[in-house]
Amino acid sequence: MRQLLSKRKVYTKLFLFYCFIALVGLISNSLLLALLIFTVALLLWHYHHLFLMDKWLWRDRKLSPPISEGLWGHLFEGIYYLQRRDRRKRRELRNVVRRFRDGAEALPEAVVVLRDDWSIIWCNQLAQILVGLHWPADEGQRLDNLIRHPDFLQYLKAAKFDQPLELTSPVNDALTLEFNIMPYGVEQYLLIVRDITQLKQLEQIRKDFVANVSHELRTPLTVLQGYLEVMDDEHLPDKAMWKKAHNVMLDQTKRMDALVQQLLTLSRIEASARVQFDAEVDVPAMLLQLEQEAQTVNRDKQHTLVFDIDPTLKVTGVTEELRSAFSNLVINAIKYTQEGGYIQVSWQRQHVKAVFSVNDNGPGIAPQHVKRLTERFYRVDEARARNTGGTGLGLAIVKHVLSRHNSRLMIFSEPGKGSSFSFTLPPELVLGNTKKRSRPL
Ligand code: ADP
Fold first, then answer.
1. Where is the chain membrane-spanning (predicted)?
2. Residues 264-311: pLDDT tens digits?
3. Which of 185, 197, 195 is nearest to 122 (CA)?
């Protein structure tokens, strides 16, 4: 930095100049004229530099100062130094503000900076999507004029911000938002809005799940309780009645057992880690065993069961999960097809993929039900499904298993004609796929 201007030096210089001019004046016998000319020249020199400064500051708007020596050079350099420092400070400040805004933009929440009269200072992009605020258009607008929901106005008025507020988004009815307000800086507030739609949906799914499970268990339990209440030491049923009661109780117990088994399977699949595709699954052997089990289940209904299996087609995956998927689809076809039906199970290679399908000529399913079949506890016909001992979880398990094996359940069905349930396992899971080599030229 330049040294401070020395008053003594400046005045001494001026005094010496005047002495010199006086001497020249005395020699030339015109002292007064010489002093006047020098004073006017000095004044003009100062005015010239004042105009230079005015031009530099107001018209040129250049950063570098006019070239000058001495007193004015010193002043120009001082202003130049202050301007540079000011620019650097402003740049730093801009960087700080930009970093804050970039940080707030990167957050998965809507952020609004407010004054204590609820006027908007700044908001991020997400505030536009979730709450419908626009920056800079809404800068200075009061938030309570833009979000008019009575609960929100009440929340602002009560000023009890230790608890968040849940509201439907003012711009999208499908979104549930959580509003949090906290003091920030000097007489400012920060409004953070979080999209909790998914959280709410999950909570609802959990509640529905608990309600469904309780409902499914309560029905057989009520039946058992009913029988047990009328059977005590004094009122033992006769043999015929006992036989009937025994059969019903056994059925209901089996139903509860099936439900608990399916629930355990589902939770085991959900809890297990990602599938490591390194275990070989001998699907042909698995389907052979399933064919024997299906024949046993089929004894009452006497369907024609045809298994068309490629004996060499093995895959990688989780044996127990795939067994559960194959079994659910085959047993469903037997359960829901009327007596004497025709069921064809196929496991075949299709190019480099493996395709499993179960086709039946059963009652079929109406289109409006098809897309909901894989929902937990969804049944087309509650009464019929209960009679067949269904839990409503079978296809939910199949869907889960298949998504873990990079596949998807396809359902084609025509009421009165039959249904087809199939899925395709991708090439990376199919064993024996030789990589194509390019032929040498
Ligand atoms: P459930 O344990 O009740 O069988 P699923 O999830 O396995 O539950 O099946 C859901 C519903 O899909 C069943 O209640 C039934 O109405 C229908 N469904 C499944 N497979 C067939 C099929 N092959 N033919 C007709 N309807 C079927």
1. 15-45
2. 998 988 888 787 777 899 999 999 999 999 999 999 899 999 999 999
3. 185
Atom of ligand 1 at shortest range from CA of 381: 16
Query: What pLDDT sits at residue 67?
Result: 87
Residue nearest to atom 23 of ligand 1 (CA): 333
CA of 276 to the centre of ligand 1 (A): 30
pLDDT in tens, 60-69: 878 888 888 8
Choose which residue among 219, 332, 417 to substitute to test ligand 1 binding: the one with the highest number of ligand atoms within 8 A of its C-beta.
332
Q: Cβ atoms within 10 A of the Cβ of 225, count?
A: 10
CATH of domain 107-195: 3.30.450.20
Give the tens place of pLDDT for each residue, 25-84.
999 999 999 999 999 999 999 999 999 999 998 888 788 888 888 889 989 999 999 999
In order, the DSSP letters of 110-162 are EEEEEETT-BEEEE-HHHHHHT---TTTTTT-BHHHH---HHHHHHHHHT-TT
State the average pLDDT for the chain.
90
Find the residues whose C-beta lies inside 6 A of ligand 1.
328, 332-333, 336, 360, 362-363, 365, 373, 379-381, 385, 390-396, 419
- Cα angle 293, 322, 432 (rounded to 5 degrees) comes to 110
In the reported structure, the alpha carbon of residue 410 is separated from the centroid of ligand 1 by a whole-number distance in angstroms of 14
Residue 246 CA, ligand 1 centroid: distance in Å: 27
The correct CATH number of 280-429 out of 3.40.109.10, 3.30.565.10, 3.40.980.10, 3.30.230.10 is 3.30.565.10
Per-residue model confidence (pLDDT) at position 322: 95
Taking residues 229-257, report their average pLDDT: 86
Q: Where are the domains of the chain?
A: 7-98, 107-195, 201-271, 280-429
